[in-house]
Amino acid sequence: MGAVIGIFGSDALAGATQVAMMTIGFLAALIGIKNGLSWSAIEQSIIYSSTKIVGPILIFLSIGALIGSFMLSGAVPSLLYYGLNILSPTYFYPLTCLICALVATCIGSSWTTAATIGVALIGVSYGFALSPEITAGAIVSGAYFGDKMSPLSETTNLAPAVAGSELFDHIRHMAWVSIPSFIIAVLGFLVIGLNTNVTEGSQASIASFVQTLDQYFTISPINLIPIALLLWLAVKKVPAFLAIMGVSLLACVFTLIFQYQALLTFAGGANAVTLIKSFWVVLFDGFSITTDNASVNTLLSRGGMASMVSMVWLVIASMMMTGVLEKIGYIDVLMRFMLKFVRSTGSLIASTMATCLGVNIVTGDQYMSLVLPGHMWKSEYNKRQLASVNLSRTLEDAGTLSSPLIPWNACGVYMAGTLAVATIAYLPYCFFNLINPLIALLFAFLNIKILRLKQENL
């Protein structure tokens, strides 16, 4: 895994990582056969592990449809429009963090947020003569908070899938730690902003972005209704697949009513068959737009079930690998070693976080930092009568949030390259990523919001 990340860098997730996982599974299976296991027994373990991801795969595909429909319906463009209109030099750092959090929550991608809005905000920081390092820290903090709390995020779906918890239960449980951490982070950026001398600079990139959105979409608060509805359904504990697919179809209806011109542009025609086909295309292949603003094109041209196929491939490959590793006893050996240090719920969660961080450092892959520790520690959480949401939250607190802080991790490489700020340079200002694990540890050792199995659905 480390070699693949070293050779392919951030491109490893496009397929090289999956091949590495399949190869690891193959080699581990040979070791198992050498030690007396039959291939049939190993295969049954793989099948058993894979059955756990059928539900999440349906959610992954529905999320792709939702992203595409949110783009076409004007939900994300409207949110971007309103967010970018509140920028000011004095409050630039906290607003940068908030805007990136909003965008990442809606699109479920920290990478896309950094590559589009993040790049624009870095440019604005130079115009305001502000620190690009602090700006990058604010972008990463906001993007990873939004990614972590979004039902559209791949990692936010992967963590509960591995731990055995439900998506919206997982998000609600994370909120107890993530929201206080994010508030502290925003206050930290506010204090820095209030104590920084700012000068008037060019906001041309932001103005161009907003103007393009206004030109191609009908901007209105009404467009935000599907987003609000999805959040309400999450609070009401509606099953994730039903909520996401239902809101996706509703967004298509909103498109027909409120974004007819944008629909005509996307469809390339006004007859009924062409319009119906365009809705089908946006659900399975995503939304695309061509404007004079490259950032708008990059940010909004995404989504569709097809865009999630790589993630599905990754999950299947990881389940194959972990199924074999479990069967041959590899995970048991690691567990016996780690359990020597576990004396309480606090030390169990601390050990889980240390495992996530270690996997992130060794493999450079945030997905592995969720999958492998999740499988390693799941039975121990059950044995101690701890609800699965405790494990899924811990996986994200340590695995997801540490990934952009490691220079050779795919996420660290990507953020540094995209924002043109070295990982080590922006790391001290990633307040959310640094504070969240500390608060999670504090909650663990003080037994705050640590749910037992019988409390999981309360």
Defining traits:
458 residues, mainly alpha, 24 helices
Averaged pLDDT: 86
The rounded Rg comes to 22 Å
Overall helicity: over 70%
Shape from CA axes? Answer: globular
Distance between the termini: 39 Å
What composes the largest sheet? none
The total beta strand count reads 0
Structural class: mainly alpha
Number of helices: 24
Order of helices and strands: HHHHHHHHHHHHHHHHHHHHHHHH
Estimated share of beta-strand residues = under 5%
Low confidence ranges: none
Structural write-up:
This protein is mainly α and 458 residues long. It has a domain at 55-308. 74% of the residues lie in helices and 0% in strands. It is built from 24 helices and no strands. The protein has helices at 2-8, 16-34, 39-51, 54-72, 75-84, 92-107, 110-127, 132-149, 154-163, 167-194, 204-216, 225-235, 240-258, 260-267, 272-284, 294-300, 309-328, 330-338, 345-363, 368-383, 388-402, 410-419, 423-426, 431-445. Helix 2 runs parallel beside helix 17 (309-328) and helix 19 (345-363) runs parallel beside helix 21. It starts with a helix and ends in a 13-residue tail after the last helix. The model has no long low-confidence stretch (mean pLDDT 86).
Blueprint of the fold:
Blueprint: H1 2-8, H2 16-34, H3 39-51, H4 54-72, H5 75-84, H6 92-107, H7 110-127, H8 132-149, H9 154-163, H10 167-194, H11 204-216, H12 225-235, H13 240-258, H14 260-267, H15 272-284, H16 294-300, H17 309-328, H18 330-338, H19 345-363, H20 368-383, H21 388-402, H22 410-419, H23 423-426, H24 431-445
Helix pairs in contact: 2-17, 3-17, 4-9, 4-13, 4-15, 5-6, 5-11, 6-7, 6-8, 6-10, 7-8, 7-16, 7-22, 8-10, 9-20, 9-21, 10-21, 10-24, 12-13, 14-15, 17-20, 19-20, 19-21, 19-24, 20-21, 21-24
